[in-house]
Amino acid sequence: MMFNNLLFKKTFLLNLFILLVIFMQNTQAQDKVSKASWKKLKTAEDFCKAYPKRAEALFRYLNLDYPGLEKVRGFVKNKKLSQACKALLFYYKNGTSGSWLRKPKPTPGISKNKKADTILKDIYTVQSVTHRQPRFKNGKINWSYLGPNNDREWGWLVNRHSNLNHLAKAYLNTGNKIYIDFLSELIHDWVTSNPYTRKNTYESEWRVLEVGLRLGGSWPRIFYSLQESGGLTPVAQLLMLSSVPEHLDCLHRFHAKKGNHILMEMNGVANACAAWPEFKKTKSYVKYAIQLTSAEMNRQVYPDGVQMELTSHYHTVSFRNFDQFEKAINRVGHKLPKHYGNKLMLMRDYLAYTMRPSGYGILNNDSSMDFNKPRIIKMAKKFKRDNWLYIATNGQEGLKPKKGGTVIYPWAGQLIMRNGYEAMDQWAFFDMGPWGLGHQHNDKLHLSISAFGRDFIVDSGRFPYTGKMAKRFRWNYGNHSSGHNVILVDGQGQDKGVLVAKKPINQDTYKISPAFDYARSSHNRFEKQKGNIKHTRSIFYVKGKFWVVVDKINTDRPRKIQVLWHWHPKCNVVKNDLEVSSIDKGKGNLGIIPLGDVKWNLKIVKGQEKPRMQGWYSEQYNIIEPSPTAVYSASIEKSSTFAWIFYPSKGQVPQVKASIISQNRSQITVSISGEDKVNYQVTVPIADKVKPILKVIK
């Protein structure tokens, strides 16, 4: 028995040693080829000699009976793969596939492009961070690198190949061959360094989302925009073509089941099948993509046209992919269901009507400050929507919308308040909806306010998703209630809410009229919650004048509360007793006036990290700066109701007289007199079966 065990061990070790030697020999041979000659491979013959399995697979994936591929089929039949590759490249150069992407050959030149020149040095800028992408000893890029902040987003975005696309654009704009030569090397590098494993992975190179985004954007543009010029080397083109079926297979096998990812992935399928119809499975892939994406339009978009992640930026992302998918499907001669086009139009409508006077969209959840104005103008002209054009041009063009300025999205639970569409008009956003399907922040009842061309009360913004900066800012601030204009209870923020609305919000909880807007909602789930707690917030907007915010805390025990009002970083903010205002000369300003019996302790916090993160703003991913936050703290013994006046002014904030006239469990009536010497009496419902009332006494 011992002899058999010993013999087995010796045999096992011997076999292991032999395998190791073979592996080392193969690796050394491969490294020798990589270091010495991979950059020298240029021609179709080089492709077939260096990558024979790829060459064979390419022609297995192609439908050689496709019109125009007769010569290719003949060469493949006679096993003349180099000749077949040349015939295939001739077909693409002189054919009509990808006609919408083709660009004329540039005049040869030596002009430079600043961004492209940094890419030549392997210096990439990803989400506002600039850093050098490292290379291995064999001269190839480390495509797995996660950037200086160890952020997965860096790795993912680099592998979407927008930098490669920029090199193509730089060549087309300058005619400088240095850009196209470097681009050919990068394509060669990426395809040969990152083989498809037929496994679902979260890694940078073959995460399914990146696969979809390459096929939906950079790869078809690069391949076809350079056909007329013949700029890419044959090896680069053939490697890219050989990888397209692998990309399609990956998307078909491992696509997401829901969310905006599946849209981008199926958009990649549709665009690739439209651009490269010569591959065998394109028809079946298209049918599959239509089935999934049509279902997602209903699954992801509410009847009011808002994408269910309830994040303005990702609404735009989803819309763009739904829109591009429709175009790709039209190119392959298929039709989409009627509901698809109807909801797509509602998604456009949402982008137009939620846009603030400055041209930017809502900054909410994982959104950036997206400048939507050019997109809205383009859509308005394409679809002849004069109302969108009026909104986007601040009334300089188009026709004024008939439904007025304020608009509510009852399924999304989002209210946009405004008194007009001119550049200096007032705008506000109130969040009264569900938590959302993705990219959520714990921020129900948040309020943002803009006026006189400025943002005053803001969402703290986006912040990085992963890496060092995310650990510092995101989890305990950026997507936490601490980074929003809500109330912390006993030091805790809101807990997760309902993901998706099953019905629109109750019509009794809001009213839109020519003179005022009103809305009310509540939240009753907090982190580490003890006992019962419910926060109800009511908003009353006297159009063109001011906002009244009423907060009611229902509790079964004493609580410590903090009310947060985040200001934009460009606002110079001061406090006067318990009032807070901006004091920027020559600009519009805003004042906050608290009302009620609560004994507040007020602090203006800016750029604080300890004892807890507070006073930061991130309008774009990786861009973070200190910003003032008014923190009102108090202890309450029982349920309490208190109010706030937000008073915007074209110049210095005037003296405003405000007081609570009366209040009970169902309503509160506030008196406000400001610079127009008019007394406004506002009755704000804080419970059901009470109507909002505005009385103007001159």
Characterization of the model:
The chain has 18 helices and 25 strands. With 698 residues, the chain is an alpha+beta fold. Among the domains are: 2-38; 404-697, Beta-galactosidase, Chain A, domain 5, CATH 2.70.98. The strands form six sheets. Strands 9-10-11-12-21-16-15-14 form an eight-stranded antiparallel sheet, with no helix packed on it. A five-stranded antiparallel sheet has the order 3-4-5-6-7, with no helix packed on it. A hairpin with a 4-residue loop joins strand 3 and strand 4 (414-418). Helix 10 runs antiparallel to helix 11 (234-254). The longest helix has 36 residues, at 2-37. The chain is elongated and about 95 Å long. Residues 1-34 have low confidence and may be disordered.
Layout of helices and strands:
Blueprint lengths: L1 H36 L6 H7 L1 H10 L8 H8 L3 H14 L19 H7 L2 E4 L2 E4 L19 H7 L3 H13 L2 H17 L14 H18 L8 H21 L4 H17 L6 H19 L11 H20 L6 H17 L18 H11 L2 H7 L14 E3 L4 E5 L8 E5 L15 E5 L2 E4 L10 H11 L8 E3 L20 E3 L3 E8 L9 E10 L3 E10 L3 E8 L6 E4 L2 E4 L6 E7 L5 E6 L9 E5 L2 E4 L1 E9 L3 E10 L7 E7 L3 E7 L5 E7 L7 E5 L1
Helix pairs in contact: 2-3, 2-5, 3-11, 4-5, 8-9, 8-10, 9-11, 10-11, 10-12, 11-12, 12-13, 12-14, 14-15, 16-17
Keywords:
alpha+beta, elongated, 698 residues, 37% helix, single chain, Beta-galactosidase, Chain A, domain 5, disordered N terminus, 5-stranded antiparallel beta sheet, 8-stranded antiparallel beta sheet
